[in-house]
Design goal:
Radius of gyration: 17 Å
Strand order of the largest sheet: 1-2-5
Strand content: 5-15%
Helix content: 40-55%
Structural class: mainly alpha
Protein name: DUF501 domain-containing protein
Pfam families: DUF501
Number of helices: 7
Number of strands: 5
Number of domains: 1
Order of helices and strands: HEEEEEHHHHHH
InterPro entries: DUF501
Length: about 180
């Protein structure tokens, strides 16, 4: 799982921080910029439980608006009262865990590392009926997991990418490892 140098710089600019772990882009916008990445599960020997990351600044803002309106709590309440939705959500956790297990199959890891990654759900969630955040759920869905919460978030978004006249990522300042602009 190796990301290209320029791609890594774009994702770092999107996230606003240095990214030490390897990743691959799993979803792009119409303009070709990453919207979601699949991250390596081990960074500097430490477990990194979040497999999929939402990197798109536009989507991040849109999803934050849903969170501000209380959608985490509303969807958790819906999970509590909908047997089919809770069953599908638990299955999304299990599918994510199975994917993590397959990605780790050829790695020599210590038991504590494996447990830290596989004994939890999406994004390291301990209680599988918690949502944690909508960004995480959407990233899980965009990463290819049949996640009912992520799917609902995707469907609630009025816009799913920047308009062509205002592509956020085209104006991001991309820097090299030393902080120099390119």
């Amino acid at each position: 799982m190796e990301s290209g140098c320029f791609e890594k710089k774009i994702v770092q600019a999107q996230l606003g921080r240095e990214l030490r772990n390897e990743f691959r882009v799993v979803k792009r916008c119409t303009w070709g910029y990453p919207q979601c990445i699949q991250s390596d599960l081990i960074t500097d020997g430490k477990p990194f439980p979040t497999l999929f990351w939402l990197t798109c600044p536009f989507l991040y803002k849109e999803v934050s608006r849903l969170e501000e309106k209380g959608w985490v709590k509303l969807l958790e309440e819906e999970l509590e009262h909908s047997e089919s939705m809770s069953r599908e959500y638990i299955e999304a956790h299990k599918t994510t865990q199975a994917l993590k297990k397959s990605l780790l199959a050829d790695r020599k890891l210590e038991n504590w590392q494996i447990e830290a990654l596989l004994d939890r759900g999406i994004g390291g969630i301990r209680n599988l009926m918690n949502i944690k955040c909508l960004h995480l759920q959407l990233a899980n869905f965009l990463g290819g997991i049949d996640n009912p919460i992520g799917k609902r978030v995707w469907e609630m978004l009025k816009s799913r990418e920047c308009p062509g006249s205002a592509v956020i990522c085209s104006s991001l300042e991309v820097t090299d490892e030393k902080g120099s602009s390119e």
